[in-house]
Specification:
globular; Alpha-Beta Plaits; 540 residues; alpha+beta; four-stranded antiparallel β-sheet; Serine Threonine Protein Phosphatase 5, Tetratricopeptide repeat; Rossmann fold
């Protein structure tokens, strides 16, 4: 290894890091305390790194500072989920330390790693030890110690990796949630993999570049009249080929559910595009072939985002402010989108659990709102940190109301005053949103054990505020515990939002059982159309 790190070598490190983390994304996902549906850290980190890979692939950076700056900018805009945002911040601080440097020695590299850690800790409101933050902090300290001892760049990174691995092993004891599940931190594991790739490049080892498959990247909505659209959802995803199942079987399966089917496969991935009415069923079948790498679900009858407008179509110009205040909300499902629109939301960003939008997705939506200040309702805990980065990227003022569920976001809209002072309005929205309790019903994607409970693939999972409440193979058997928990809050209003894989009749039956448990509450049923969750239930 040369005594100094230059821009081309750093580029190779990032390209290698993407390959390694892409190969390991399912392993990382499985550490993310699944089946409570938060198991997307590997996916989020992979998609975040992919953005940097795309930006760097067509560039030949002349200096280290240039390579770091391109990487940091791409990571920030592509950051998805808490893990992706923290990763972007680690490289953002690194880039600031390397600004205008042609190259750097071991001490400068170690110092830059430390700057990255400082940036990440500063951005996280309540830093938690036993996470990627701990792993990166101890790695940076070890890199500095190695450099002080006379190590070169390779030796400094090797020291960081050794410390990171040791720190990762200890996370299972530092974090109570990880200890219950008996796993190490998923984000920390991802960071270790990135350091492993960087060290491999420093040692001159070859890391094969990930293959790119050229396929149709968007639905051609102009080919259809709205009333002629038989299938509501444009579903696109990439699934890793991790089984021996023939992709032709997937194509046959999809033909029974929808049309406009495009299935392109190579030795490593299968890329799919299909118009259908039950994306949850589509994705569940896709998981039998391997882990999902990317997912996009758009409602073709009610398009509110730009996610499928990339490619040859020119991006829309930012809207000039014509009013003082606006709102965008994150959700998935045509029914939920309509509810937010009816309550006054200016824009919708498609996303949610397992489909975290990137910071760039959020910024694009913010720029299209004709307001001086835009309030973001993330409606998911894993989207809040990405939303918090928007204010530094767009020219508009952005305020994030930290809603963690869609019902919280809907309730927050009831406190929205388009004519009020932005900070006061945001505070009122946060207060009204915080009064809601959210229950959700989904399914276990595989056999698993969590918090002392054993679950089989396909079991129903009932969650309260994102934490496992009860599970079982018979939905009717878990309803009483859901009802009892709702009754414990003595709500005045209970709303059942049924998803794309549930029927109105079944939702009505569930609502009737809940009404028996809370006879004094108003119980209503609304179509949410959301994927992943059969039901989302609010109690307020």
């Amino acid at each position: 290894m040369k005594d100094r790190l230059d821009g081309l070598t750093f580029k190779d490190m990032i390209m290698a890091a993407y390959v390694r983390i892409n190969d390991s994304q399912q392993t990382i996902n499985e550490l993310n305390v699944f089946p409570v549906p938060d198991g997307d850290t590997g996916t989020n980190m992979t998609l975040t790194m992919l953005n940097a890979r795309k930006e760097l692939s067509s560039r030949t950076p002349k200096t280290l500072g240039e390579a770091c700056d391109v990487t940091a900018s791409a990571l920030l805009r592509g950051a998805r989920g808490n893990s992706g945002v923290i990763l972007s911040l680690l490289f953002r601080g690194f880039a600031r330390a390397m600004k205008e440097k042609r190259s750097a020695d071991a001490a400068e590299v170690a110092a830059a790693l430390g700057e990255g850690v400082a940036a990440a800790y500063k951005a996280v409101m309540k830093p938690t030890e036993g996470t990627i933050l701990t792993v990166s902090r101890l790695a940076a300290a070890a890199a500095a110690q190695a450099a002080e001892g006379g190590a070169d760049v390779e030796g400094s990174i090797a020291g960081a990796l050794e410390a990171a691995r040791a720190a990762l092993e200890k996370t299972v004891e530092q974090n109570p949630v990880l200890k219950k599940a008996g796993v190490v931190d998923a984000g920390g594991k991802g960071y270790v993999i990135i350091l492993e790739a960087m060290l491999a490049v420093a040692r001159g080892e070859e890391v094969a570049a990930a293959e790119t498959v050229e396929v149709r990247e968007k639905a051609e909505f102009s080919e259809f009249e709205t009333e002629d659209i038989k299938f509501a959802y444009c579903t696109e995803f990439i699934v890793a080929r991790e089984t021996d199942k023939d992709p032709a079987l997937l194509r046959s399966f999809l033909s029974t559910l929808g049309d406009s089917i495009v299935v392109v496969d190579d030795d490593e991935i299968i890329k799919v595009h299909v118009h259908n009415n039950c994306p949850g069923v589509v994705l569940t079948e896709a998981l039998t072939y391997g882990s999902l790498q990317t997912v996009k679900i758009e409602n073709m009858r009610n398009q509110h985002t730009e996610l499928t407008s990339r490619g040859e179509e020119a991006p829309q110009a930012p809207a000039e402010p014509s009013k003082p205040l606006g709102v965008i909300a994150v959700c998935a499902g045509d029914g939920l989108e309509s509810i937010f629109r009816d309550l006054g939301a200016d824009g919708i960003v498609s996303g949610g659990q397992t489909m975290n939008p990137s910071t760039e997705d959020l910024v694009r939506a913010v720029d299209l709102v004709p307001a001086e200040t835009v309030i973001i309702l993330p409606n998911n805990k894993n989207i809040i940190l990405a939303a918090n980065q928007c204010d530094a990227i767009t020219d508009k003022k952005v305020i994030v109301v930290p809603t963690t569920t869609v019902p919280q976001g809907i309730s927050a809209m009831l406190g929205y005053d388009a004519e009020g002072e932005p900070e006061e309005v945001a505070a009122a929205m946060e207060e009204t949103g915080g009064a809601v309790h959210t229950f959700s019903v989904t399914y276990a994607a595989r056999d698993s054990e969590f918090d002392g409970l054993t679950m089989k693939e396909g079991d129903y999972l009932a969650l309260l505020e994102g934490k496992l409440l009860v599970s079982g193979s018979d939905f009717d058997a878990i309803v009483p515990e859901i009802a009892a928990s709702i009754a414990g809050f003595d709500p005045a209003c209970v709303t059942v939002y049924y998803g794309s894989d549930a029927s109105e009749a079944d939702a009505d039956a569930l609502a009737a059982k809940l009404a028996e448990a809370v006879p004094d509450a108003e119980v209503q049923v609304l179509s949410g159309g959301q994927p992943v969750y059969y039901y989302v239930i609010s109690a307020e």
